[in-house]
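TICKET: design request
STATUS: open
ATTACHED STRUCTURE:
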């Protein structure tokens, strides 16, 4: 488990003889350093705030909302969802896309379902869009 070390330093700003007549105002500098558990050494590995499934394709599934680029964020294959994610809005929308331009002509195939659905994303698809669905699980 990684721990955080936070330090604060108050630095008095000097006028440096500028003759402005302004009084020195203190300012705070806060430094946060993550340390590797048990080592006492700073962790210099790169950090990302994006979940792993957004950075790279999740070979086991696709989250229920978003537009995912095929080959990097979603792998070709057959996926299944249990249906709508919400009882209030009982609709699950999906689309296979030629591009992410948003043009109607970019839709290869799409559907609205009130129950479970199965979709096969082809290697030639550019993106897969899903809204209001439970997570899509890869079945092949």
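STATUS: resolved
RESOLUTION: sequence designed for all positions
ATTACHED SEQUENCE:
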């Amino acid at each position: 488990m990684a721990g955080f070390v936070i330090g604060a330093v108050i630095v008095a700003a000097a006028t440096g003889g500028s003759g402005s007549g302004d009084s020195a105002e203190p300012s705070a500098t806060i430094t946060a350093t993550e340390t590797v558990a048990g080592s006492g050494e700073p962790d210099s590995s790169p950090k990302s705030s994006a979940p792993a499934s957004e950075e790279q394709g999740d070979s086991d599934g696709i989250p229920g909302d978003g537009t995912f680029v095929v080959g990097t964020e979603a792998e070709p294959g057959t996926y299944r969802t249990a249906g709508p994610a919400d009882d209030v809005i009982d609709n699950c929308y999906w689309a296979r896309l030629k591009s992410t331009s948003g043009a109607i002509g970019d839709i290869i195939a799409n559907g609205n379902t009130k129950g479970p659905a199965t979709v096969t994303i082809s290697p030639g698809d550019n993106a897969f869009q899903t809204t209001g669905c439970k997570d899509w699980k890869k079945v092949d």
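CLOSING REMARK: The chain has a mean pLDDT of 72. Residues 30 and 137 are 43 Å apart (CA to CA).
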